[in-house]
Structures are given as C-alpha cells and as structure tokens.
Design a protein that fits this description.
The complex is a heterodimer. Chain A has 13 helices and twelve strands. Chain A is of the alpha+beta class. Chain A folds into two domains: about 160 residues, no CATH class; about 160 residues, no CATH class. The two termini of chain A are about 30 Å apart. The relative contact order of chain A is 0.18. By secondary structure, chain B is α/β, with parallel strands linked by helices. Chain B contains six helices and twelve strands. In chain B, strand 9 and strand 10 form a beta hairpin. In chain B, helix 3 packs parallel to helix 5 and helix 5 runs parallel beside helix 6. The two termini of chain B are about 25 Å apart. The chains are: A alpha+beta, B alpha/beta.
Amino acid sequence: MISLAGRDILHGWGKFVLTGFGLGLLIGVTLTMGGVYRGMVDDAKVLLDNSGADLWVVQQDTLGPYAESSSIYDDLWRSVAGMRGVDAAANVTYLTTQVRRGEEDVRAMIVGVEPGTLGEPGQPRYLVEGRHIARSHYEAVADEASGFRLGDSIGIRRNNYQVVGITRRMVSSGGDPMIFIPLKDAQEAQFLKDNDSILTQRRRTAANPSLNRPGIPGLLESVLASQTGNSTVNAVLVRLAPGADPEETAEHIRRWKRHEVYTRVQMEEILLGKLIATSSRQIGMFLVILAIVSAAIVAFIIYTLTMGKIREIAVLKLIGTKNRTIVGMILQQALGLGVLGFMIGKISATLWVPIFPKYVLLEGRDSVTGFIAVMIMCVLSSILAIRVALKVDPAEAIGG
Amino acid sequence: MSGGKGIKVEGLKKRYGSGETAVDALKGVDMVVSPGEVVGLIGPSGSGKSTLLKCLGAVIEPTAGKMTIGDEVIYDGGWKIKDLRTLRRDKIGFIFQAPYLIPFLDGTDNVALLPMLAGKPNSEARERARELLKALDVIHRADAMPSELSGGEQQRISIARALANQPPVILADEPTAPLDSERAMSVIRILNEMAKQFETAIIVVTHDEKIIPTFRRIYHIRDGHTVEEAGEGRSTEVNEDGRILALSK
C-alpha cells in the first residue's frame, strides 16, 4: 500500500516545508529557552564547582555570598582553617560590577583571592593562557567570555589591572564572567569611597563631640584610621579534609564560630531554588506558552490540510478505504510536520546558540524529551482533524 | 439476470425522518440490470435518484426491500453484509459527476489505489491499473497528476478506477455533466465497451439529454417509483479522438 500521507506531502511539499520551517523556528526558540534554563543551572553549578569549596562560611542569618550580601572579618579564616575536618580555608570577596575595557563597559563578577595560593578554594581552577596572579596588587585573571586578552588593562573603580591569565567557564550564577584580582584590591574596590565622601566623613567625624573629645589627643586620628581600612570579606571558603563529613564540620563551625555555614547541597539549593527560581518559573511559563502556540499551529495546519481534502476523504471512504488508513494519513502528516519542524528547530538552535550573549546549554536528553513532546503534541493536535475526517459522510461524494 | 452477476432491486423503500414529518423518498423501486448492460436512470430533481444511488451504493440504509448483487443478497430488510466498506470496495464501482481523483496521486496510482486497498501487492495493482488505462486510451497520461489532465482524461481515469477491482456493478452519477457533447458521447461509448468487456452492470444517473438516446433501457424515477422504459438504444460511433462520427439505431 502506498503512503497517502507521503504522496500528499510530496504533492504540496512547498507548503509543507514552509509550514515546517515556521514550526521549526518556533521549536528552535523553545529548545533555546530550555537551553537558557539549563545554562543558568549549569552556571550555578559551575560557580560552586569552580569555587573549589565544600563549605561556605558567611555572615549569620544571611544566604551569602551569592544570594545575599555577607560581611565577615577577614581573619576568621585562620581559626576556621584550624578546626576539625577542615583541610583548607580561604577568604573570598565577590562583587558584580561594570568594569572598563577600553571605551566600553563589561559586566563582570570581581572575585578577590589571596595571590600565590594556587589550589586553595576560590582560586581559578585552570588557565587557558598566561599565569596565575603572583603580585599583591593590580594583576588580574579574566574569564575569556569577558573579552579581555592577555596584557589588556581592566579598569575597576579607580584602579587599572593588567590581565596576566585567561581562564574559561568561570562565571557567576547570572552568567557574568569572573575577573580574579588580589584580595586586598578587591576589598578596596568593594568598599572604596570617592574623595568627596571621605572628606565629608572626616568632617562629620571631627564634628562629632563624642569622637573628638577635647583633652584626649589621638582619639580622632584613631577613629579616622579605623574608618579608612576595610577588614571584611564576603565569605570563607572551606575545603574539607578527606573523609570529613560536611554536615558535621559545618555544625562544628556554626557552634564555635557563630557564623552561618552552608554545605554544597545547601548552597546548590540556595542557588537553584532561590536565586534562579523566578527566572526558572519565567522560562517555564515561556516554554508552556511556546508549546501551546506550537500545538495550535500544528493543529491549525493539519486541520486546514484535512479540510482541504474533505471531498477526497469522502471519495476514499466511498471506495472502501478504512478509517484507520485515513487516520493514519492525517497522523503521518502531523508527525511528518513535527519531525521536519524538530529537525529545523534543532539545527536552528544549534546554529544560533553560539551567538547568544549568555551561556545556553543544549543537552541531548532535552532534545530527546523535546522530540517526544513534539511528537505527542502533533498527535494531540491532529485529533481535531481526525474527528472531522471520521465524521465525513461518504455520501458527500455522491451528489444530490 | 445472467452469469450470476448484475444487480437486482425489489421493492426498495427509503423513508427519511419519522412521524408526521417523515418523507418517503423511495416508495418501492424495482430494477434489474444485467452484466454487460448500461441502463439510464433519469428523473426530475427531488424524484429520489440520488437517494436510490446512495442505497445501491450501500452508503445509506434503505427502509425496506431487497437488493442482490450477483448471487449475493446484500439487503433484505436489513444489511446482510457487515462490512459495507469492503462491499463498496469489491462489488461496487463509482463514477462521479466530477472525476474526484485524488490530487496527490498520479493517474496510475489513482486507479491502483483500489486494488491496493483490497490487499493486492503494489506491483500487481499498478499492472492492473496500466491495463485499464491502456483499455481506456489514457496510458500516455498514466504518470500525470490530475491537475495536469484534461476533463475528459480525468473522467476516463475515474472510469478506470471504478473498474479497478472488477466490480459486478458500477454506479455512475452524472458522469457526463461537465463534458461537452463529444466527450460525453465518448464516455458513454467507453462505458458500453467496458460493461461488455468486464461483464459489469452499469447504472448511469443522468439529466443529460444528449446521452439519454444512447441507452437501450431507461428507468424513469417518479414519485419514488421506477418505471422502466425502452430507450432508443442508439449506439455511438466515435473516432480515435473522441469525435462523434454517427449516432445510429
């Protein structure tokens, strides 16, 4: 038996291909939206993976350092490093800001790390070019997505940093590329005030009688000195000793240091469940809408194609064609449209994903799920057309 | 009826609706068409021609009466055959007012579709189709799509389709309506030839006055009853191009 659906498609291939192309672009957008979500999740996981930390010690009652701001003293790491179950501990600061690349601005996450502590938590895991930060000031390692190249100058606040190393896939949970600079510089960048603010603050302090008491020499200078320095970081990243239990060690630090401590599982929950939860729901809504629109288009096209063949269907029924042959014809056309649309969608998504500004991760399993979803959608979309076809009276082929 | 084929209709009735609004479209139709015979079925609009055709074609169920195709009683106060679809496919050929060819199949496959539906292998079905197209003198258009065919060529292919499963009965509904006189006569000639060649009983429903004189027997349907009349029965002589050479007794 010849394939009626195949012949019909071949007969009107132009219309079919154009429809498939339109549907394909829609499917491509849907796959890309899914890829954007996967990219966000991957960015969040990469952020945690690349931090090299098993525990995050942050300010009490905060979800820091990625989801909320956290401020802790920069000498905390010493006592944490000496605790049971801790292999290494390191200070880290995070600051998402605009940095200057020549004449243009680049959104980046500035990460402050101790120079010369390779392999410690918080350091870039590997470089694709150049070297790690070796000096205490004004050197930087940049993620290649930032667009910086070796030797480039990065303007961060009032200082310029020279790029000495390039790393890859070191991004924030929002997908912004990371730029690593020495910790002291990062602390300064995070809390640096402009000259006018410093002068204003000094005047206000000097005018405060409780901070500038007569007869107590040196008090004002001491207070001013305490205001200029910055001895806080956002978090202490902790790497556990082999065999140490994360929960137990975290509880130990919580009890003795009176800070919030998150394990990897908890931090993942914060990033995925809280930080990108709204974005995920947003993308989920888009996916649902796109799926409905795609289904509506397939349903409309298949319905229109079927309505255009009502007389032929009546003739087919009259000459003895079984209902299942007619249903098969409509279903095959719907599935054919779905297969064509999916292929075009997959190719389109693969082609345009590299030019997306944010990381888009097209996973094989998502493609398989997408393909199955498209096929189910096509089957469901053809129900209306099948109902119409089954209701066609063969008598319609006979006049009168 | 000879050879155990043909169609016989006895006291066929069809009522639409019920109660006071019921309409008796057929009030007792009797009809016999032998194999190899082409009879005309004529009547004014609303006389029940289409209803009779639909009943004969097992598309709608009569209310009462008896229908026999060949030796097989297909209706006797109720359908005697469960699968009407298969009955239509194997025992009844249809020719429509417009050819209604499947637009996405070429000439051969439009004809071969029926044997294929009956379970014949594609090659065998196509072989049969090509034989019929050759007999109907449209083999040169076998690979053409319906949109590329003239009205006459389309109608010939639709005749070939009706003959594809060698049905004992063919029902033709105004087969010459869209054709000019010459092509109409050509179609009637072909139907006569095919009826003889394939031992098929053909019933032609028509309004077309120019072909009515060609039938040897005519059933005139009036008020739901059929009245058999002898037709003029003149045969047509048509040349290879389908042009009428003569219309004679």
